[in-house]
Amino acid sequence: MQIDQFLKRGAYHPTFCEDFSLVQPLEPHKLVLAVMDGCTMGQESHFAATLLAKILRKVLKEWPYRAIYDPDLQHLSLQRELQALLAALFTDVQQLKNQLLLSTAELLATLVLALLDTRTGEVAVLALGDATVAINGQLTRFEQDNRPDYLAYHLGQPFETWYNRQQQRLHHTMCVDLALATDGIDSFQPLVPTEGLPDVPTYLLLDQRRTGQPEVLNRKVRQLEKEFSLVPTDDVAILRVQLA
């Protein structure tokens, strides 16, 4: 199994990177992956993306202990387990919002969350906001007209009510190549006029060249800049896992 991560501040964001990513085992054969994108129009949006990742990491660390006291958590389908993880995240964000007296504007961040069974290849994905997901060479784009329906907008309502309205879901039973990316994947622009530009999402999320080499995504992004003067103008976070 090869796991590649890439995170870069966009050229139009001179101070902070507003994206974040997380990869963490849930069990010996399960992996949780997530990319977050803070809302530029929000308040301290780099904080929102990072905070969401930290809360998710807390949920994942607590999960084995929760399962001891709630045996039902040990027998969930992958899709239901993803829902349960998100429910725990939702509750913790609600509580932290109240404890820290945070405004909604301080919590605006998109979230793409995937639960991957590395033994069977089954994967469940939920995208909350704009994002691109690739599974086995197939790109899926989730677009909300650059006006994401952030999780933070719905913290005042029951989780189930909100979750049942979510449509941006994917499920695959034989995944061998999975990639998640924030919408910054579409922001690459040439610094100087350049012809013959490659398709960046295809190159970074689907292309199989250099598989097995360390820092593949970093190498490819450097190549894009060197050969085509292409750089991301928006912050971008990418995760890619190849099982075979």
Automatic annotation (TrEMBL):
<feature type="domain" description="PPM-type phosphatase">
    <location>
        <begin position="15"/>
        <end position="189"/>
    </location>
</feature>
<dbReference type="Pfam" id="PF13672">
    <property type="entry name" value="PP2C_2"/>
</dbReference>
<dbReference type="InterPro" id="IPR001932">
    <property type="entry name" value="PPM-type_phosphatase-like_dom"/>
</dbReference>
<protein>
    <recommendedName>
        <fullName>PPM-type phosphatase domain-containing protein</fullName>
    </recommendedName>
</protein>
<dbReference type="InterPro" id="IPR036457">
    <property type="entry name" value="PPM-type-like_dom_sf"/>
</dbReference>
